[in-house]
Write a structure and sequence with these properties.
Length: 194
Amino acid sequence: MKAAEGFPSGLCAQHRAIEALLRQLDGVRTRGGISDEEDLRLLAALRRLLLPHLAAEEEHLYPLARRYLPVGRALADAAGCTHASIRRLLDRADDCRLSVTGRRRATAVLLLVLRTHLRGEEEQLFPALRARARPDELRRCERRLREPRAGPPGATGPGGPAGPAVRGLPPGAGAITALRDRLTGHDSSGQHSP
């Protein structure tokens, strides 16, 4: 990244991948003959994309907001509460003990909360940080956000266990990286593609 105005391109690429999956979940609900298996598969894929994303924001993005924004502490605290709610809603939507109708209701609430949160970050938080934080801090944060996170024991990839492919994206934990690389013209080693 050469300038602060690109910040946070990694998070924005992750947001696009999450939004693509949310659209697929919407599509499952609007088609006739909704498949419960398809619903669960998409929710599992959402979990694989979303949980590392939330953890990276908490570890790198929100500490930056605390340092540079006048209301950064309150914003970071509120985001932490929202992230906790998103995790609970994801668990509820993915709970096989609930009826299909109950899980679909939980999923609808999850999608609403998640979309509102992502939109708030892109429309308010990211521009505020670009305007107030030092460019070297933004570059450092961007680098940290791009670092692969360690997965749980037994993980098959850098971001966690691989699972069924998400339509339009490669399978497993490399989906976000592949999308980011495609958008930025970099290969997975971080080198610029010709």
